Amino acid sequence: MAYIFVADDFTGASDTLATLARCGLRARLFLDVPQADEVDGLDAWGIATHARSLDSRSLKALAVDLGRKLAPFRPPFLHVKVCSTFDSSAETGNIAILAEALCQAIGARKLAVIGGQPSLGRFCVFGNLFARAPDNGVYRIDRHPIMASHPVTPMREADLSLHFAALGLTGLSRVDRRTSGSGTAFPRLYDVLEQADIAMIGRELVEEAAPLVVVGASSVAEAWLAGQGIGRAVPQPGLSVDRPILAFAGSRSSLTASQVAAADGLARHPVSPSDLDPNSRARETIFHWASERLAGGQDCLLFLTADSAQDTTPAILARWSAHLISQILQQARVGALIVAGGDTSSAVVQELKPRYLEFAGTVCPGVSTLVANLAGHPMPLILKGGQMGDVHFFRDSMRFLGQN
User: Fold this and answer.
1) Nearest-CA neighbor of 167 among 187, 197, 184, 193?
2) Structural domains in the chain?
3) Tell me: the pLDDT tens digits for 268-305?
4) Can the peptide bond before residue 211 be classed as cis, meaning omega within 30 degrees of 0?
């Protein structure tokens, strides 16, 4: 039986896909639950959703639909992939709703949460989540310089049991690191400080009676691989893109702003949220600016400014951004697409509607390159969440794509 995961956004989904593919598994990413013949011969597959940007009612409807389609596969181990910072709210991108609906759909009475991912600088100790920041300091998540003030889902509670309870999932039983959780009641929350903790959790969880739902970042895949005794790395494929590259920064985090400022190798154009309105004249100006530069062989970057979005929701901004990007791709011959921002990445892939996506290499920790199958034609995509990468993310992405 293949490893199956459901992700609440595309950037997270691509990281889990990469984690599995780097260990030699034949893995693919889909936009919806595939047909049985589409996954025949795969070792792992996942579904990338836009759940992270949905209100609770829409998210519940999506989760029920996914669960209905997943049920015939009878997955013994289902990974609900969420952001490593667990940012979520009762009203937007509620990960508890997603997890519990999928549990019900596949008949799972056992749910576990893996609270950290040391490989990404995420740690859970005594049930409290900590995360490394761009300054290399490690902060409790409710004091993290980015996540504590996230524009959509700020993390104001570091205790993951309390955080999940506020989302509607109560009664998490904490399992101390280096302590067996066998006999501990479900739902469980596992502390994680070191990679050895991940391996121990994996060996424990793969021995649990199926079906089991495990919530967490790509550390869940790392745990499962360790539990299966899979740890070999395979050489990463190389890319050489000979057409101009389009980049779009939809995230307005302080880290993404610094990455945009350092992107000296790309022509840059600011985009106010109001410019994205389909009825805006500014939108046409931006479209022509990007199309002309790409037609001339110049790499370019459009970036969303910190201007007020007024009553426009993040989901609408993401859809408007995706539609603009799609129009540009139809007009210009583009070699690859780079997108910064989880909601924007999700909307872009939904707009492009690839048949499937495959792993093509790692740019930096937590950021992978995918190749989208667009009507039989490959398109490299680099998708990242707002808090991923260092200040030279765009430079590193261009180099990975064979530029400069």
Assistant:
1) 187
2) 3-227 (3.40.50.10840), 245-400 (3.40.980.20)
3) 999 888 888 888 889 999 999 999 999 999 999 998 88
4) yes
